[in-house]
Amino acid sequence: MDAFRIEGGVRLKGTVSISGSKNAVLPMLCATLLAPGEYTLTNVPVLRDVTTLSSLLRTLGVHVVRDGSTLRIDSTRAVPNEAHYDLVRTMRASVYVLGPLLGRFGHARVSLPGGCAWGPRPIDLHLHAMEKLGARISLDHGVIVARGAPLRGNVIDFQISSVGATGNAVMAAVLAEGTTTIRNAAREPEIAALCEFLVAMGAGITGIGTHELAIDGVPSLSPVDAAVIPDRIEAGTYLVAGAITRGEIELRDIREDQMQSTVEALRATGAELESTEAGIRIRGTGEIRPVTVSTEPYPGFPTDMQAQLMSLLLLAHGDSTIHETIYSDRFKHVPELTRMGGRIRVEGGDAMIQGVPNLTGAPVMASDLRASAALVLAGLVAEGTTEVLRVYHIDRGYERIEEKLAGLGARIWRVRQS
Ligand code: EPU
């Protein structure tokens, strides 16, 4: 398992290009199951999660070929085979095949994902949505079995705003008979991008980007080509890299309008941010101010930026609080950051952070994607050497992170370990 060795203390400087969004491309790939034919997706990040999902799609008869940041997909021979546990368990987003398989073929078998590093992460809302559309759901030896042909439009009123359940419900509903209304739909840009992709394929969706989606079912859809939106979480992570090292970084290939809450939180810590022709520039100033931040569904501050922001707040002049309202136990990075000198107390979903003057390098263990990013960020500013073990987590969602950081002057190396 590879590790990163980081020698901290370099002020990062330069320009970094942001890759396509992981959480946008994953449902788009699954949506290709809805209409047989050839698709070309561009700006696709080279990430382990994309590779995993491509492997899963191949088991469903879909051809996926990568050429740099372009994926060519041919779903002409797609079949509703079972989505097996060995792939689903490594990536929960695999459950995104449920809606399209059910919508197109009238039945689907998808292994029930297990828990994840920071909690149970249920999929009850996904199943509830399929049932509302007329599917019968049962569990067969750990496999979700969904049947229902044809699906029929209905009102789906989500109790919790869920990115995945909204995406799955939309993909199931686009080919259903009649109209589906999704209330309390997730408004995340990745869901809006999925809806736009489906509309380009011929789907009838209105209310995109709002809490209420209306979907008029159509008999069939057609393949299209599309570009993946920039990754707002990767972008936010590089902004923190600029702030924490008191550096100056310009990000290109971003959608600043989709990153407002992150920009605001970083401004509140004292970082200077300005729009540029190519994207956005951050300048880390001397003093990091403490802040109180709550994670919220979009457009609020993203839970996927919580760990990275915490690394920055470790060095604030004063006490900060982070309320994690999406996943109350998403704090696996806390004990590792503590090993680097961070002072953090967790109570329920709240993390209280007492700023310290400096962090010290240490061997630390990555436990999930964003926790790993937080450890790398802390390592960039810590005194001495930090070794981040198990970086396969970071390879799931950050394209060539060590190369991009090294391009900004960071002293970071991948250490190959067997
Ligand atoms: N929830 C349920 N039941 C469900 C589904 C969700 O109770 O059936 C709850 C969750 O436990 C959570 C809340 O609803 O408390 C929101 O979860 P959501 O369904 O929105 O999360 P997700 O779709 O599983 C996506 C991203 C995550 C990101 C969350 C929240 C993808 C592939 N994953 O997950 O991204 O944290 O939305 O924004 O889009 C990451 O990229 O590191 C990552 C974990």
Number of helices: 14
The overall pLDDT average reads 96
CATH architecture of the largest domain: Alpha-beta prism
The CATH class designation of the largest domain is: Alpha Beta
Poorly predicted runs: none
Strand order of the largest sheet: 21-22-1-23
Description:
This protein is of the alpha+beta class. It has 2 domains: 205 residues, Alpha-beta prism (UDP-n-acetylglucosamine1-carboxyvinyl-transferase, Chain), CATH 3.65.10; 206 residues, UDP-n-acetylglucosamine1-carboxyvinyl-transferase, Chain, CATH 3.65.10. The chain is 30% helix and 25% strand. It has 14 helices and 23 strands. Strands 21-22-1-23 form a 4-stranded mixed beta sheet. A 4-stranded mixed beta sheet has the order 2-14-16-15. Strands 4-5-3-13 form a 4-stranded mixed beta sheet, with helices on one face. Strand 19 and strand 20 form a beta hairpin. It starts with a strand and ends with a strand.
